[in-house]
Design goal:
The complex is a heterodimer of chains A (about 210) and B (about 625). With about 210 residues, chain A is α+β, with helices and mostly antiparallel strands. Chain A folds into three domains: about 80 residues, Ubiquitin-like (UB roll); about 40 residues, no CATH class; about 60 residues, no CATH class. Helices cover about 30% and strands about 15% of the residues of chain A. A five-stranded mixed beta sheet of chain A has the order 2-1-5-3-4, with helices on both faces. Chain A has a two-stranded antiparallel sheet with strand order 6-7. The relative contact order of chain B is 0.08. Chain B is globular, with a radius of gyration of 28 Å. Chain B is built from 25 helices and 19 strands. The chains are: A alpha+beta (about 210), B alpha/beta (about 625).
Chain lengths: ~210, ~625
């Protein structure tokens, strides 16, 4: 592995080939905000909060520092007016889904994000994928996954796997930056728990205690 | 047929095929692309077969079902060679006359000829029709001459000459050099220099490499790749094979949309034929080069046109992009070096090898060489597939080839580059078809969609339409694309409903900047283009929607009202009879009145009102006048 020298926020740094900009910045003690990054997981590039400006071979690009590898003589700026504006908008977009997430509220304060800027769509999930990736990469169980695409994308547990694996694990819960994950699990649990014998039931396998009418 | 084992055998077979074909013998070709099939090409083909038999001309005439001729507006199309007599909108019942007159008596069936709607002149030959006259059909040209399922037909038009030359006369470096020298740029949208891309893949370390054809054409209204794949699959196969040799790959994949059944069918037959003749498989033409191709049918996600998403999908994963770098040339399919190009790019390759880089690079502009196929659709007289040299102006494409805007309507804008492209107004019609010039104007080349819009089109609504498309088609992986499009779409939808707020334009700019700046792949990075280009060129329309709740094009339903002018109404009842919502109060010799609460704004009354009266107005941004009181509605 060859060593690559570059500059981040005016400071010289040498990093081995394949290192990401985020890792190189951290080695310098430079803090780049992240949401979907996790030490045990491979970089995913979903939240884009870690976007920085990178000048390489005469071209200036905005790149996700968690994924973009260092390049020789690259000049990186982790804070510019443009980047701060982008981070602010991204946080406002995430806050419209999870207005009470402590992590997002704290980041929002740094960048002056207004959590009421966009109409609330309290799905609570910001689709950072920490739970999905942790379950797949670390636990290798794939009990939770993404479904659908675009604006309709969501996370859901796969009941058949979840009922077998999740009860004694729940290691993904503390990873969730919002309360969405617990909610998704509670829902799955409710769906897979059979109705209690003394509860009124429609007799059609419905688990609702009130009966489905 | 036995395998062809050498170039000598290939040339011998070509000679044999050509010797059997009399160039002076009448050949009736019938367009059988998807568009002509939809207008009845299948029935015309059956009639043709029957009639040739019935009139006893089986030995005097050849018939051939070919790929798309491009003039889809006028299909099914019949062209009779060697002259090139072109009959349009041919129906099964026309066939008897075509054979008895044109084939037997050498007479023209006048009523089936093209009539120029502007001048009234007829054109007998294909090349005299303005739609074809101003084109340069280097890639599409063979479509009308060959049956896409016939390898013999492809051999008759110099097919497989390029691969023979490459395998025996050129090193892989020379092939890459030739493509570099041609200055061919990728036809899928980004316009990256193809030779450079090939060079990266060739130089990438690794024994196993792949070549891939991107036929996941997903732009609404675009069908360039479909027609090339349907009409001339062998050219794509040959191009792919040349690319494989150049980068050192022995396996190729063709990713084609499931929604293109004819392309899949023709391609599958072409691969089988090529395998049968030994033009795919082991030791091709005795050169020692092995190459196999697999077809993968895509499940219809627009995002899979993005190369890393396509490769993920090909591996059986969800169609979502990866970060680049690493680029597919270094780490592509199954993590191996992969060269992926669009259908049209691959189809250009055999020609570049046959005719040379100098021939190719002599066509076009300084930065964009060769030709480009566009699907010209929307409010234009001659819709269809158009192939023009780079450097042709948008004006020439729309007005000379496309015949202008139908009816008495005025041209308003042309949208190029698909859903993430841009809309250009009439003062930019002299913009040339060139990767850089289109980008500078605020649009883009994209893969070749070209949608013409007339004065009745609302550009705010168009931006909303494209954002709605992108909202469905974004994979949803990264925040700026998923959420940015969601928020921009909400604002645009509000504008078209009269719910926009002051400051919405600034908010659109802010959202657009974040989406463009921080999205992972090209879908997100270009998603704000429809908004930005319409804001740049048609800002006054946005302002009218926001400030006056007015739609200048009178097209946004929630911002318009239909009103019958009492002074002009003659009480004829035409509008009353047409209204499907029973929203018009009328009566004999009485002024008619639209009941606004019941009106569905279909526009039927406006169309029905006789031009001489012209009593139905479409209002926007102004209050609807009070209805004439019941007692005052009697006329005369």
């Amino acid at each position: 592995m060859s060593e690559i020298s570059l500059q981040i926020d005016g400071k010289e740094v040498v990093a081995s080939e394949g290192t990401t900009i985020l890792e190189a910045a951290r080695s310098l003690g430079i803090e780049i905000p992240t949401v979907c990054d996790h030490a045990q997981l491979s970089p995913y590039g979903a939240c884009r909060i870690c976007t920085v400006e990178a000048v390489s071979n005469g071209r200036t690009n905005l790149v996700a520092s968690c994924q973009y590898p260092v390049e020789k003589d690259m000049v990186v700026r982790t804070k510019t007016e443009q980047i701060d504006k982008i981070r602010k908008v991204l946080l406002e977009q995430m806050l419209s889904h999870a207005p009470d997430s402590e992590q997002l509220v704290a980041l929002g304060q740094i960048y002056g994000a207004d959590r009421d800027r966009f109409e609330k769509e309290a799905s609570f999930c910001i689709l950072c994928g920490l739970c999905v990736r942790y379950c797949a990469e670390v636990k290798k169980k794939d009990a939770i996954s993404f479904f659908d695409r675009g604006a309709k994308r969501e996370i859901a547990f796969l009941p058949e796997i979840a009922m077998r694996e999740c009860w004694d694990c729940k290691e993904c819960f503390p990873l969730c930056p919002t309360s969405a994950l617990q909610a998704a699990y509670v829902l799955t649990e409710a769906l897979m728990t059979p109705a209690e014998a003394d509860a009124p039931s429609c007799g059609g396998g419905c688990s609702s205690r009130e009966g489905c009418g | 047929m036995s395998r062809i084992k050498s170039t000598a055998e290939l040339e011998a077979l070509r000679k044999e095929i050509l010797a059997q074909r009399d160039p002076d013998k009448p050949c009736i070709t019938l367009c059988s692309g998807s568009a002509c099939n939809a207008t009845g090409s299948g029935k015309v083909a059956a009639a043709l077969e029957l009639e040739i038999e019935k009139q006893g001309v089986t030995t005097e005439v050849v018939s051939r079902r070919t790929g798309c001729h491009g003039f889809c507006e006028q299909g099914p199309i019949v062209v009779i060679y060697p002259q090139g007599i072109c009959y349009l909108k041919v129906q099964p019942e026309d066939i008897a006359e075509i054979i008895s007159e044109t084939i037997k008596k050498k007479k023209i069936v006048e009523r089936l000829l093209y009539v120029d709607p502007n001048t009234g002149e007829t054109a007998t030959l294909e090349e005299d029709i303005p739609f074809y006259k101003y084109q340069k059909r280097l890639v599409l040209g063979s479509n009308r001459k060959i049956d896409p399922k016939s390898l013999e037909d492809y051999l008759a038009v110099e097919g497989y000459q390029a691969i023979a030359k490459v395998l025996f006369e050129m090193t892989p470096e020379q092939v890459v050099g030739e493509v570099k020298d041609s200055k061919l740029r990728g036809r899928g949208g980004a316009g990256f220099p193809s030779g450079l891309k090939w060079d990266f893949a060739r130089k990438a370390p690794g024994d196993q490499k792949y070549v891939v054809v991107n036929c996941d054409e997903g732009d609404p209204g675009a069908y360039m790749d479909r027609s090339v794949m349907e009409g001339n699959p062998f050219a794509v196969l040959e191009g792919l094979m040349i690319g494989a040799y150049a980068i050192g790959a022995n396996e190729g994949y063709i990713y084609v949309r499931q929604e293109y059944p004819l392309a899949v069918a023709n391609l599958t037959v072409a691969i089988e034929k090529a395998e049968e003749y030994g033009l795919l498989g082991k030791n091709i033409l005795g050169s020692g080069f092995d190459f196999t191709i697999k077809v993968h049918r895509g499940a219809g996600a627009f995002i899979c046109g993005e190369e890393t998403s396509l490769l993920n999908s090909l591996e059986g994963k969800a169609g979502e992009p990866n970060a680049r770098p690493p680029f597919p040339a270094i780490r592509g399919l199954w993590s191996k070096p992969t060269n992926i190009n669009n259908v049209e790019t691959w189809a250009n390759i055999p020609m570049i090898i046959n005719k040379g880089a100098a021939f190719f690079s002599a066509i076009g502009t300084e930065s964009s060489k060769g030709t480009k196929i566009f699907s010209l659709v929307g409010k234009v007289n001659n819709t269809g597939l158009v192939e023009v040299p780079m450097g042709a102006s948008l004006r020439d494409i729309i007005f000379k080839i496309g015949g202008g805007v139908p009816g008495d309507k005025k041209f308003k804008a042309v949208q190029t580059g698909g859903p993430s492209g841009g809309c250009l107004p009439d003062n930019l019609l002299d913009t040339k078809v060139d990767f850089d010039e289109l980008s500078q104007a605020g649009a883009m080349m994209g893969s070749g969609g070209m949608i013409v819009m007339d004065e009745d089109t609302c550009l705010v609504d168009i931006a909303r339409y494209f954002l709605a498309f992108l909202s469905d088609e974004s994979c949803g992986k990264c925040t700026p694309c998923r959420e940015g499009i969601r928020q921009m779409l909400k604002i645009l939808t509000n504008m078209t409903k009269g719910l926009a707020k002051e400051g919405d334009i600034d908010l659109l700019f802010e959202l657009a900047e974040a989406t463009k700046g921080s999205s992972m792949c090209a879908l997100g990075k270009t998603a704000p283009n429809p908004v930005l280009s319409t804001l740049k060129h048609f800002r006054e329309e946005y302002e009218a929607h926001i400030n006056e709740k007015r739609c200048p094009s009178l097209s946004c339903k929630e911002l318009i009202a239909f009103h019958i002018e009492p002074e002009k109404c003659k009480g004829c009842g035409a509008c009353f009879r047409k209204c499907p919502a029973e929203a018009i109060e009328g009566g004999k010799k009485r002024i008619h009145v639209v009941v606004q609460e019941k009106c569905t704004k279909c526009g039927g009354c406006h169309e029905a009102c006789p031009a001489a009266f012209d009593a139905v107005n479409i209002l926007s941004g102004v209050p609807v006048p009070e209805a004439t009181p019941e007692e005052a509605r009697a006329i005369g």
